[in-house]
Design brief:
Blueprint (H helix, E strand, L loop, with lengths): L12 H8 L2 H14 L5 E5 L5 H8 L4 E5 L3 H13 L6 E4 L12 E6 L11 H8 L3 E8 L2 E10 L3 E2 L2 E2 L13 E13 L7 E9 L5 E12 L5 E2 L9 E10 L5 E9 L8 E6 L7
Parallel strand pairs: 1-2, 1-4, 2-3, 4-5
Antiparallel strand pairs: 6-9, 6-11, 7-8, 10-14, 11-12, 11-13, 14-15
The structure holds S-adenosylmethionine.
């Protein structure tokens, strides 16, 4: 498969604050960090943003936290958050690209919240693969597994009297209608050297005789033994991607979906093809 680089779309201050104030998301991460971090652990928080997750680890008795963040503006926020919470001595802010960063020591815990639905847009997998050289036996990851799912959609594409299906969108509209079963098309085990792309074929069943002009992608991530995070206000919104070649479905027939893209790429670069399946539905 042709390799394309991760996008260079940058997080804005608006988005970073939506992350912080998405209390369902942030409380789940706090709980997972408390479940996993042990006293005296060395932690890296890669893609640290406001620094909140590293501060949770420091308050939970980590010995040292390397908060790695690409954007200088956010690095200042991390320093201030650490200062205001009395953990400045534990937090080392590194303003670098986490896919290339050099750390001065090995780590017990990797925290990396660059979770975008389908692993589009952000280099989560590439960062964790790079940080593997700092793992010790028993290094733990938050998250440790990511699963993604796909379903065909009859998507609403006329709005304000204008046809608007030129971009993907991170939300479902009221008139969107799922027209097939939903299946898992990807699973990333981050505890092992992970692949950096999706190249997957799955079979789904049509629920209706209708056009399918889009797919909807959803994801979930395993943060700890007890916490699997799905959609919250800001995290893991469903990603609707329009098909270049819409298909007319017939109820109860099977269809194959082939989907391929490198992790971190733009949704518009995903190749998604839907064809009638040669398999027969079970009676
Ligand atoms: C989804 S935000 C999450 C922020 C924070 N971890 C949290 O949970 O609140 C992702 C952050 O990763 C940063 N980021 C993206 N790519 C990066 C890279 N290659 N190296 C370091 N930071 C990166 C972004 O600037 C952004 O602040």
């Amino acid at each position: 498969m042709k390799k394309r680089p991760a996008t260079n779309i940058q997080f804005t201050p608006y988005e970073i604050s939506l992350c912080l104030y998405d209390t369902d998301r942030t409380k789940q991460w706090k709980q997972a960090i408390e479940d996993v971090v042990r006293d005296g652990d060395i932690v890296v928080d890669a893609g640290a943003g406001t620094g909140i997750l590293g501060v949770f680890a420091a308050l939970d008795h980590a010995k040292r936290v390397y908060s790695v963040e690409l954007q200088p503006r956010f690095c200042k926020l991390i320093e201030n958050l650490a200062l205001k919470n009395g953990v400045s001595e534990k937090i080392v802010v590194i303003n670098q690209d986490a896919t290339m960063v050099e750390l001065p020591e090995k780590v017990d815990i990797v925290i990396c919240e660059l979770l975008c639905t389908g692993q589009f847009f952000e280099p989560q997998v590439q960062i964790i693969n790079h940080l593997r050289k700092y793992f010790k036996p028993g290094t733990k990851l938050i998250p440790r597994k990511i699963e993604s799912f796909i379903q065909l959609l009859d998507a609403h594409e006329i709005l304000y009297g204008v046809r608007i299906d030129t971009d993907s969108r991170s939300l479902l509209m009221p008139d969107d209608e799922p027209v097939s079963s939903k299946v898992q098309y990807d699973e990333i085990d981050l505890t092992k050297q992970a692949k950096t792309y999706v190249d997957s074929s799955v079979t789904i069943k049509a629920r209706k005789t209708r056009v399918a002009d889009a797919v909807v992608i959803t994801s979930q991530a395993t943060l700890s033994d007890d916490i699997i995070t799905e959609r919250t206000k800001f995290l893991y919104n469903p990603e609707v991607i329009y098909l270049k070649n819409p298909i007319n479905l017939i109820k109860d027939k099977l269809y194959d979906i082939h989907i391929s893209y490198p992790y971190g790429c733009d949704t518009l670069d995903a190749i998604i093809e839907v064809t009638e399946s040669k398999m027969h539905p079970r009676v």
